[in-house]
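To whoever is covering the structure queue this week,

Two jobs came back overnight. Logging them here so there's a record in the thread.

Job A:
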Amino acid sequence: MEKFMKRSVKKSFAIVAGCLLIFAAFLSVGTAHALTTAGTPIIAIDGDNDSNVTVDVFSVALTSPYVYGYFVNAGPTFYALGALSTVTFDGGDLIDFALYDYTRYYTLSGDSADASYSVTMTFGNQVTAGSPANPAGWSSPYYYNANITWTLSSVINTNELALNFRNGNDGLAPVSVPEPLSLILLGSGLVGVGLAGRRFKG
């Protein structure tokens, strides 16, 4: 009887610990928006429910022969930008800014997989009012302004874009990606609950 009680306590503890790890993983996923991350596109947030998101894009330190531009929603078309461009997106659009040297594209999303360049995104002026229309249920921070800087070994100075949103409470944010810690917590919790259940059946 005493042995059975000890086994039951151990199983209960394993199940509770596993559930806590799973819960912690879900909490951490909800806050996985790094503000200076690389290797991810950004998302346009329509914060004033007017069906469009308009942004002024400045090429602050463009270096020849690179052309600034972007891809939208993983589409194949590269849209070139000038020294000052006004662009309208839809709320929820995924924007993958890039440099083009007429041979290849240096994208935000490709940075983490390519050691030949790096990209740094910094965000400013968090939007604290409004109700973002897209994506539905968005509750993480988003911002009025952003600077995106490329550093390439082939040029001495960096290439920088500055984004400033025109409309009301519109803005942008990094795309939400589960961080490694979140995945570890979730995996540990599932394994713990699974093992406890298996021993209980045995």
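Job B:
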Amino acid sequence: MKIMRIHLNGAFCLLIALFSVPLGVARGQSPLAADLVENRIEMGRKTNVKTIWKSIEKNRSVRINRQGFGDTVGKTAIFLTEQDMISLEAAEANRRHQSLTVDDVSRWSLRGRTRVLLVAVAGGIYIANLPKWQAPAVHMTITVDGKEIQPESESNTGRSETRLGASQTGVVSRSGNLVTYTPLFESSIYDVARSRTWFSFNLPAAGSTFKVTVISSDGHEKSKEFSGAVLK
């Protein structure tokens, strides 16, 4: 049995690395006020990264499409607000017996922006289609009240694969005293690969209609409308 996974801590480190990108403060959204920042820091101190991340996945995920016939790669967009990032960073700092302050947050370069994690999933023979939906090939836009917004940055956090019950099928042939084995193909009871690509958006402070669109390397598009509650 062969199992390969990307654990949460590894993904989280890549998530936090986004703060180092020198892109300045967003024009569309104002950074949180100091008292709200302090509230988010305190919330992060009282919990842990795993718990916060599970809440984000539950409340801020937009399933663009399921993997199935016709759509061989399933795609989900997970939105992270500035509040989420502060709580995550505070929880990670607390784990390291460190502290996060309001002044620390004020120096972050990506304040006011919304980060979006595109998770693409494929299984079996369709894993070969995954690169079309991951960086640097894939592209994402967000449409707010009919206005399409391009990402300000995008980066790839890599791929992970889970294989259970892997086996190989081949042919055994004999020529005199010589026996040879020729492998034909490999199969697994469960074989799924995931890619994770980050985008950063400068979204307006308010809106009534929202839509996320992802575009593959060969021009295929998938869109999904979602509620503004995802960004609250």
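Note for Job B: Residues 8-231 form one domain.

Please reply-all if you pick these up so we don't duplicate work.
Q.
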